[in-house]
Amino acid sequence: VTDGTVDLRADFASDNTAPVCPEILAALARANRDAAPSYGADAETARLRERLSVLFETAVEVFPVSTGTIANVLAVSALTPAHGAILCHEASHLVMDESTAPELFTGGARLVTLPGSRAKLSAEVVRDRLAAWPIGDVHAAQPATVAVTQATELGAVYNPAEIAALAGVCREFGLSLFMDGARFANAVAELGCSPADLTWRAGVRILSFGATKNGAMNAEAVVVFDPALARGLAYRVKRAGQLASKMRYLAAQLLAYLEDDLWLRNARRANAMAQRLAAALSAIPGVEVCGAVQGNEVFVCIAPAIRQRLRAAGYAFAAYPVFGPDGCRLVTAWSTEPSAIERFVAVAAERQAV
Length: 354
Ligand SMILES: Cc1ncc(COP(=O)(O)O)c(C=O)c1O
What we know:
Elements: H1 22-31, H2 43-56, E1 61-65, H3 68-79, E2 84-89, H4 93-96, H5 101-106, E3 110-114, H6 123-131, E4 142-149, H7 160-173, E5 176-181, H8 184-191, H9 195-198, E6 206-209, E7 220-224, H10 230-239, H11 247-258, H12 262-282, E8 287-289, E9 297-302, H13 304-312, E10 318-319, E11 327-331, H14 338-349
Parallel strand pairs: 2-3, 2-4, 4-5, 5-6
Antiparallel strand pairs: 1-7, 6-7, 8-9, 9-11, 10-11
Helix pairs in contact: 1-11, 2-11, 3-10, 6-7, 8-12, 12-14, 13-14
Bound molecules: pyridoxal-5'-phosphate (PLP).
Residues 67-69, 72, 93, 149, 153, 180, 182, 212 line the site of pyridoxal-5'-phosphate (PLP).
């Protein structure tokens, strides 16, 4: 990549800049043999359903799709009527980064944003909002869904007890709990808990199970824990143009992702690299790590002169003014090498890379 003057370095710009991991590419090549049934009637897609049911320790329904946005908006559309409201964090991907897809796919439901540190919703904030809501009043949008992101957009994780507390409030008021798991693997790797404890056992009804950021090419899975929702979602998937005719290639990516815990190994690697990056940067005067690193996103305040030096060296990364005027986001991935961290830190510290 070039901006005309200097090669851009995308190492820490996003986990979407990481390549596809070799195990997944190899699985695509293996799947690329004979003719196979289309539209999800193939053996890989059936195996994926079985495999995810084993992972989550319950029978799940699975819809492989090609982006996180479509996974999220299909999921919330299955949980939220057109006259409903979705409660989500004000920094959530759903409200900040999915254009008006949530409104489009729900037929016009309202997104209601709530505050919370590090993009986390708390049970208390959600309960207070719902307690003051004119529930049953036809003049008001009716709350239907609470959406959380795991790990959050600001680099924090919810533990199973926090998810269960949110689900408890949902039950109290008759809402559903949805989880955007674009970085679910990083959260599980961070927490060391079981995927079941973090989702359906705590009360999550649908999960967007991310893979693209963590080594896949272009595959995410909508994982449905409530069988009553599956049929309706199948029609929604087709209507959204997401019933892939060659579904086996999405399923093959996701199967390889699950094989031998590749998803967790990749996430552990990404998380360890985030810790390493944060530790190295925190030793540099003029750089301050903002809060604990949980997962693969590092938020740092970088003094303008250092930022300027990094930009001049070609490094691309996002500004995060929520952490102040110097706030920045650096993201590691399954493919991050220690040498890439050393190069970045050397530029930041204005010394020669070893
Ligand atoms: C929290 C979160 N959810 C979902 C997504 C997936 O979005 P996309 O539609 O770009 O695959 C992303 C990707 O940036 C994300 O950060």
